[in-house]
Design brief:
The protein is of the alpha/beta class. 31% of the residues lie in helices and 22% in strands. α1 packs across α2, α2 crosses α3 and α9 packs across α10.
Length: 382
Amino acid sequence: MRSVRHLLNYKDIYDTEGSEKLFVDSMRENCKFQYDNCEDYKKILDGMNFSPDSVTDIDSVYKIPFLPTLFFKTHRISSMKNSKFLYKATSSGTGGKFSEISFDIGSLWSAMIMSLRVLKYWKIISPVPCNYIVFGYQPKKQNRTAVSKTAFLTTLLAPALHRTYALKFNDGKYEPDLEAVLKAVQKYSKKKVPVRFMGFPSYTFFVMQMMEERGISVKLPKNSKIMLAGGWKQFYKEAVEKNVFYKLAKDTLGVEEENIVEYYGAVEHPILYTDCPNHHFHVPVFSRVVIRDVNTFEPLPNGSIGLVNLITPLFKATPLLSVMPDDLGILHDGCKCGCGINSPYLEIIGRVGLKDIKTCAAGAADLLDKSTLNKVIEGGNK
């Protein structure tokens, strides 16, 4: 897709205003591709009386029927033959259900270029070796979750001397080993190379809390970082305000707020959102975010709270053009941040129950006949 290639190379990754026409062209190209190559997606668009040719401006992009992430958790849908898939990623699962998203070589290339440009912009890539504390899953062949693969790939952004994992695989299941993590923190703090924390904020917080309760504090080497991703998941009740987290990090680890970085994304929307120095998720040129009314699904003005709708044209193998996770959020004007980036920024307020998200497609699955549904499900189980 020609426009997508130009979008990937756009000079300023946060110039959403200047890249608008290119983004619209990329969305139209991808929408046509999905319509022509994915019979299930074609049925959904036809059922909504939506034509890819109608994508002519940013407002029409927002009219592309969105698919809730719940749809991907119950159906396997793709726009290419299985022989073209190089990689499949799964979500962590909700209620025992998980999304399985397929990627061809072009989609993987797009994801890599996009991620490297974002990480280079925020100076996360470094040639300096470091020790890693990974608050995530110890790699195992049978673990295909995107969060585990992303955590490991992040340890390649600076050469890894050692990796210590918080979630270790024992007797066929993952179990947290925070005592081992605490020992590693104390050991690494005595070395001269930086330490990078990576993974779930919940387990990161639990270890810092353990240190505070036991009266343990260390001073991690210069340029150490805490990189957070994956959200609080099942520990949402234990989630704390960011200022509380930052203070605890300084008190127990000696890590200042400016060295704490947070990421946002989803397996169904593999765009890397990295927070700015003011800890806001600015929207890059590779995507757009719409906040929708919880009852009408109409787009809301910036500053309003509603359902988050994530949009991107980067991926071909699976129709991920417009998806709706189970997040409530607010889109703010970029100029209100103060960091110098003018693209809008997304604030995540919380999560809503998946059963409460009723897509305007009347449940995309309802637009597929029974035989097609069986084909999709059976194809995903092969």
